[in-house]
Amino acid sequence: MKRLVNYFLQGLLYIAPMSITAYIVYSLFTFMDGLLQEQLIKFFGIEIPGLGVLTLVVFLIFIGFIGRTFIADPLKVLFKKIVESIPLLNFVYTAFNDLFKAFVGKEKKFNQPVLVKVNLNSDLEKLGFITEENLEMLGEKNKVAVYFPHSYNFSGELFIVPKENIKPIAMNSSDIMKFVVSAGLTGWEKK
Question: Could you tell me the CATH number of the domain that includes residue 111?
């Protein structure tokens, strides 16, 4: 019997948030639709079907804007200030944040796949991604920074490579990354 009560409570926990949200949205819709239709008929003598849906969409967009502007963004700023005040945590957070932004952020860094000749005495080449082309801060004018991801691992190495040892690849960078990380087993559709 205790197990059945437990299952009942679990089911209630799964369904309650969705049901409550649906009920609130339905109630808002019927309230706004009824109120607006009543006012339109009273003042203009017309009825516009679906006005409640439009009003509800505008209302939810407004609530989303308020929530994002006055709740979410200030919390992000507060979290960032707290992290920046703790030296070791700041170092780790910043490194991982930059790494994730490089993969999926607005300023994707791994978008220039290249083949790099790693040994001048052989034809051995390695797949990598140019991450920085201007290395004047290191005193290097004819070199670029190339990131080489490791296969089957979430790590890699950064090398400073002469430009003449680099050959750009005209392929999708995410396919190249999949190819490297999977040790050459996947990446693009084989035809």
Answer: 2.30.30.140
Please give the DSSP secondary-structure letter assigned to residue 105: S
Q: How far is CA 132 from CA 15, 77, 122, 136, in A?
A: 50, 28, 26, 10
Q: Which residue has the tokens 């035809």?
A: 191
Among candidate residues 84, 115, 143, the one where a domain is terminated:
84
Contact 180, 151 (CB under 8 A): yes
The letter for the amino acid at 40 is L
What is the total count of domains within the chain? 2
162 SS3 class: strand
**Tokens describing residue 166:** 């680099």
Q: At which residue do the structure tokens 């006005």 appear?
A: 51
* Statement to judge: residues 42 and 76 lie in one domain: yes
Range of the domain at 67: 2-84
pLDDT, tens digit only, all 191 positions of the chain: 778 887 877 777 777 777 887 788 788 778 877 777 777 788 877 777 777 777 778 888 888 888 888 888 888 888 888 888 888 777 777 777 776 666 665 666 677 889 998 887 888 888 888 888 888 888 888 898 888 888 777 678 888 888 888 888 888 777 787 778 777 766 555 54
Q: Against a cut of 0.90, is the pTM above it? A: no
> Does 97 fall in a domain?
no
Sequence-ordered list of residues with C-beta below 8 angstroms from that of 169, at least 6 positions apart, any chain: 113, 114, 115, 127, 176
Residue finishing a domain among 49, 84, 119: 84
